[in-house]
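Here is an idea for our session: we take a single protein and study its fold together. To get us started, please write out a protein record for me. Once you have written the record down, we can walk along the chain together.
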Amino acid sequence: MSTQAPAPTRREQILKEAARLFAERGFHGVGVDEIGAAVGISGPGLYRHFAGKEAMLAELLVGISGRLLAGGKQRAAEVPEGERDPAAVLDSLVRGHIDFALDDRPLIVLHDRELDRLRDTDRKLVRSLQRQYVELWVQVVREVHPRLSEAEARACVHAVFGLLNSTPHLSRPGALPGRAATAELLHRLALGAFRAAADGSGPASGEGGGGSGAMGRAGI
């Protein structure tokens, strides 16, 4: 049986190239014709797949927020409730987010720079998906580190997202260790941050919520 991943669809190819170009040159710095050329079709041919650049941007940002949440829920549900090991679930969540942070860097840049270009309905959907993703982590973090208050755990989750989502800004290409070494370094830093917070936790100063989003440099 073949274990090879299925070839990306034309729609997926378009989205990948659109994300790369938008991240490199900004949303307004890229034309439909250039996106089409990157996937080997005419610019007008893209309109068979998307209504325009705005639709591509919305699908990219809403899509990745939905995939992060769905992936997080799947990882949290992989172990039956009676056999649940919260530390293993947290480890899995961290590794899954690291994969995103290393493999989808253009989407982090897009979120930082272009989220406000979305229609209100799409932007609110992104924020809703991201809040659910944050709260999934908060629950698991508090199971692993019960000394943390809800407010402290939420602040830690946002801080760790900021750490992991710094990958587009870390350094010039080639100046970092390879992917596997970088992934393990980020993994140690993330879990270490949660442990350090729990070791030094004290009375909570409040139950603040919200946050800037699951893909921003300062948090999700």
